[in-house]
Amino acid sequence: MGGYEDQIKRRREAIEERVEAALARSGRPRDAARIMAVSKTVGIPEVVAAIAAGYRLFGENRPQELVRKLEGLAREQGLPAVRFDMIGNLQTNKINAVLGRASCIHSISSLHLAKAVSSRVERRMASGDCGAAQDVLLEVNVSGEASKSGFSPDELRASLDELRTYRGIHVIGLMTMAPQGDKSIARRTFAGLRELRDELASRCPELDLGELSCGMSEDFEEALEEGSTLVRLGRVVFDPSFELK
Ligand SMILES: *Cc1c(COP(=O)(O)O)cnc(C)c1O
Question: How many CB atoms lie within 10 A of CB 93?
Fold first, then answer.
């Protein structure tokens, strides 16, 4: 892992510089946004190398892989505490695998899923298995692509009152994925997410929507310039062949 660990470290320094510069362009300090290392395509040794390089927040998109990574890391000695979030499509029959493991679920894409997560958390709270509501983000299909999951902006506007009755979830913000390929469309998608958040926040001031999870390897600078508070980076972190700029 020696050579790989060095590469991940060097890549992290380059990513850090780009994140800081993008935040500065939008007049925000470095601590306005966090970097998540999306480890879905790599194994435990690569995650350990990323931890050594300084990453503390990881994302997985499949429940089985989340379980596998956490079990693998638990066998490693002397690691600092790290957090894993669930960022991919979640089927209701996999919710229990994620609860108690993911610190935040980024992919609450429908009222049906929100309700299913909430009721399972409430059951766990009632039996003393967990003490607090599950932090979640509401996934929004800002771009309207048919292939993307998430609330449409109109659905989300119409769902807020219902969502607020779900005691097992604690909504902390919004998440989106931009269409790949065209950076100006990606930017518009991120700006759309921020504008929707601002609108919802002014309509429901008691709602906590501080987190905007958006931006991936190809478009994280655009996302940060448009207000992202959490970029989810996979290839640029882990893939030595992904161009760094
Ligand atoms: C894979 C994935 C990412 C990271 O994608 P990269 O382009 O490799 O940075 C981010 N978010 C989600 C939901 C993903 O599934």
Answer: 9
CATH number of 2-238: 3.20.20.10
pTM: 0.97
For the chain, the domains span: 2-238
* Ligand 1: centre distance to CA 62 (Å): 12
Could you tell which of 60, 62, 66, 87 is best to mutate to test the pocket of ligand 1, judged by most ligand atoms within 8 Å of the CB?
A: 87
CA distance 213 to 194: 10
For residue 197, is pLDDT > 90? yes
Calculate how far, in angstroms, residue 42's C-alpha sits from the geometric centre of ligand 1.
12
- Which residue, judged by its Cα, is nearest atom 12 of ligand 1? 87
Arithmetic mean of pLDDT, 105-113: 98
